[in-house]
């Protein structure tokens, strides 16, 4: 127990890469956040501060609460204790604030969650038109811009079911980007993809990272983590066990559970 | 020809395409494959042909071959006068046709009903054809302007139009008024009830469940009796409202409960990811429902929705028991007229009523199939 607590405290500290800390630089501030599913304690005393422009990769065994944690950030899951402040707005039951946060936070899901009854273009323009009240023409221009960025403008008139998994996930990323979000959350974006499609999605994500997007990414793509992450977080049993910059995280993990996890996913 | 002794082989000439054997193509091939592929299949085919013959042959004989087409009264339709077996007595239907369509609506005011029929046709047809533009305006006219215009035209009392009591309405007019009102009102109410039943708010959920289960638990006949006989007893002295109105409300609430369960079935088939995708984009609850969830859910349950519509359309005949004369009621009441009394009178009347109902219901059925195909975007996920 003591060892775990110590690790949590160490993990909860500020990122090692020193940054000028002022309140406007903080994108997400999670303090002492707890969540239960019924009686089951899924997230335990989570402390996490994400700076603007920071790219964070979260990994950990299944059931460790990593997806639940990032889903709390845009209120797809409700937390019961502690506070989450996103872009200066604290998440409460106030629906207005939830809406405000969701407008600024994009999310990409494991199973894409594209809307099958709408074309690719309509998927991308829906939220700008209805949430941002943008004129249709402008929304379509923006959508085409982002579809070009993810390299599938020629699919704009098709329906999601006519696209491959990798293409669908790239559309899902473009759809989020059309809302011009300040923060992007990725919940295992490549886990449901065939191996040859993972790269095309990761390429888009690397591109985003290089442009300075604030990203929280739950993934087991360790190559991606090494390449773009400022920080890698390891979660287990609902707590942050260890966090570090990628190089020391992979070469010199401190916690026993991190070592075990890394040995299992890196040398199988 | 090529030398086949070697293992390596290179084709030097193109193989010619030969016609398929006669037994597998064309009409004969189709029959062989589908009707006579095995002994049991052959037996079933023969039984089917025999059944179809024994049902349709008498029907066609009755309706067309042995039918009487002209005449002024019952004498034209009596076997001893015609000198042969007599089928349908169509002059009777012709003579009664205005009654079947308008009921006892005053003859000189029937043009008002015609205008309503015409307006409805002019608005519903472009609405149902997907390629016709201006759907929003069309829908607005159909759902807002038309009911108001139709109400004042049919009831009267304004612009110098004499009032026509609803007790004088009848025939197809009553059938269509009840069916169209019930259909257009029960779908939105049903959707709201379905959403209510799935709501996170316990009170809303409880009220929806009570409402749905109450209306599904009582027979429509009971509802109609309550509406026409019991309800006036509970209302304070002097407060009356129209019997047709009471029936309309009863039928609408009754079918909206069924509609709610159909729609709920569709809502349950929508994966959680669709809700999350919509929420993550910042859509509000009603936007999410209107733009993402309901279009998919309703598309899934089109067969169920249209099934409920068809059921409602046919259930309008039950208003007969509270003393209103819909198409079937009007047909039945004409049997008492001695002018046309003949052995085949009632058969002819029922056949006519059945044919009208069948045309409407079959139309709805085909249209639902058409919409299903039209809305299918070629994938499931």
Helix and strand layout, with pairings?
The complex is a heterodimer of chains A (268) and B (381).
Chain A: H1 2-12, E1 26-37, E2 40-51, E3 55-59, H2 66-73, E4 81-86, E5 89-90, H3 95-104, E6 105-108, H4 120-130, H5 136-149, H6 165-177, E7 183-187, H7 195-210, E8 214-218, H8 222-228, E9 231-236, E10 239-244, H9 246-251, H10 256-266
Parallel strand pairs in A: 3-8, 3-9, 6-7, 7-8
Antiparallel strand pairs in A: 1-2, 1-4, 4-5, 9-10
Helix pairs in contact in A: 4-5, 4-6, 5-6, 6-7
Chain B: H1 26-34, H2 39-65, H3 79-82, H4 90-102, H5 110-128, H6 135-155, H7 171-197, H8 202-217, H9 220-234, H10 243-268, H11 272-280, H12 285-300, H13 302-315, H14 327-333, H15 345-375
Helix pairs in contact in B: 4-7, 4-14, 5-6, 7-8, 7-10, 7-13, 7-14, 8-10, 9-10, 10-12, 10-13, 11-12, 13-15, 14-15
InterPro entries (chain A): AAA+_ATPase, ABC_ATPase_HisP-typ, ABC_transporter-like_ATP-bd, ABC_transporter-like_CS, MetN_ABC_transporter-like, P-loop_NTPase
Keywords (chain A): ATP-binding, Nucleotide-binding, Transport
Protein name (chain A): ATP-binding cassette domain-containing protein
């Amino acid at each position: 127990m003591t060892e775990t607590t110590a690790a949590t405290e160490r993990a909860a500290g500020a990122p090692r890469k020193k940054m000028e800390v002022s309140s406007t630089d903080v994108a997400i501030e999670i303090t002492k956040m707890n969540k239960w599913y019924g009686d089951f304690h899924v997230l335990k005393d989570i402390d996490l501060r994400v700076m603007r422009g920071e790219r964070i990769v979260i990994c950990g065994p299944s059931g460790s609460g990593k997806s639940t944690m990032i889903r709390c950030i845009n209120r797809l899951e409700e937390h019961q204790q502690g506070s989450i402040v996103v872009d200066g707005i604290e998440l409460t039951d106030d629906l207005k604030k939830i809406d405000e946060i969701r407008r600024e936070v994009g999310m990409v899901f494991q199973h894409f969650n594209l809307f099958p009854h709408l074309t690719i273009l309509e998927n991308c323009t829906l939220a700008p038109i209805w949430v941002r009240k943008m004129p249709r023409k402008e929304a379509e221009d923006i959508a085409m811009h982002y579809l070009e960025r993810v390299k599938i403008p020629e699919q704009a008139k098709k329906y999601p079911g006519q696209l491959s998994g990798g293409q669908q996930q790239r559309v899902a990323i473009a759809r989020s980007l059309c809302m011009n979000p300040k923060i992007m959350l990725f919940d295992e974006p490549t886990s449901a993809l065939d191996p040859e499609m993972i790269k095309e999605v990761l390429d888009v994500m690397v591109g985003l990272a290089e442009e300075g997007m604030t990203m929280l990414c739950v993934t087991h793509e360790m190559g991606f983590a090494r390449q773009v992450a400022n920080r890698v977080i390891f979660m287990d049993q609902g707590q942050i066990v260890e966090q570090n910059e990628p190089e020391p995280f992979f070469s010199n993990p401190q916690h026993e559970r991190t070592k075990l996890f890394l040995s299992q996913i890196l040398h199988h | 020809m090529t030398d086949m002794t070697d293992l390596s082989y290179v084709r030097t000439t193109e193989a010619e395409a030969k016609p398929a054997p006669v037994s597998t193509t064309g009409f004969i091939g189709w029959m062989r494959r589908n009707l006579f592929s095995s002994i049991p299949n052959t037996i079933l085919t023969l039984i089917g042909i025999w059944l179809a013959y024994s049902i349709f042959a008498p029907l066609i004989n009755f309706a067309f071959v042995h039918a009487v087409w002209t005449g002024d009264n019952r004498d034209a339709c009596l076997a001893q006068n015609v000198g042969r077996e007599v089928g349908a007595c169509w002059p009777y239907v012709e003579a009664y046709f205005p009654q079947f369509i308008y009921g006892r609506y005053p003859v000189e005011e029937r043009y008002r009903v015609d205008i309503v029929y015409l307006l409805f046709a002019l608005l519903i047809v472009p609405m149902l054809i997907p390629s016709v533009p201006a759907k929003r305006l069309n829908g607005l006219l159909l759902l807002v302007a038309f009911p108001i215009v139709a109400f004042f035209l049919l009831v009267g009392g304004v612009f110098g139009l004499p009032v026509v009591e609803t007790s004088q309405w009848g025939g197809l007019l009553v059938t269509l008024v009840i069916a169209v009102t019930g259909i257009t009102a029960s779908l939105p109410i049903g959707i709201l009830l379905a959403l209510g039943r799935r709501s996170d708010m316990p009170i809303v959920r409880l009220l929806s469940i009570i409402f749905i289960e109450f209306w599904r638990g009582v027979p429509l006949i009971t509802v109609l009796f309550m509406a026409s006989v019991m309800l006036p007893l509970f209302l304070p002295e002097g407060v009356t409202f129209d019997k047709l109105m009471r029936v309309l409300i009863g039928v609408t609430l009754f079918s909206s409960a069924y509609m709610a369960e159909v729609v709920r079935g569709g809502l349950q088939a929508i994966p959680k990811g669709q809700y999350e995708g919509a929420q993550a984009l910042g859509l509000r609850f009603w936007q999410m429902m209107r733009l993402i969830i309901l279009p998919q859910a309703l598309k899934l349950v089109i067969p169920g929705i249209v099934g409920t519509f068809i059921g409602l359309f046919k259930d309008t005949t039950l208003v007969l028991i509270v003393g209103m004369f819909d198409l079937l009621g009007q047909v039945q009441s004409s049997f008492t007229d001695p002018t046309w009394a003949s052995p085949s009178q009632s058969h002819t009347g029922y056949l006519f009523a059945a044919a009208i109902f069948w045309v409407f219901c079959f139309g709805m059925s085909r249209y639902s199939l058409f919409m299903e195909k039209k809305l299918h975007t070629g994938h499931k996920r």
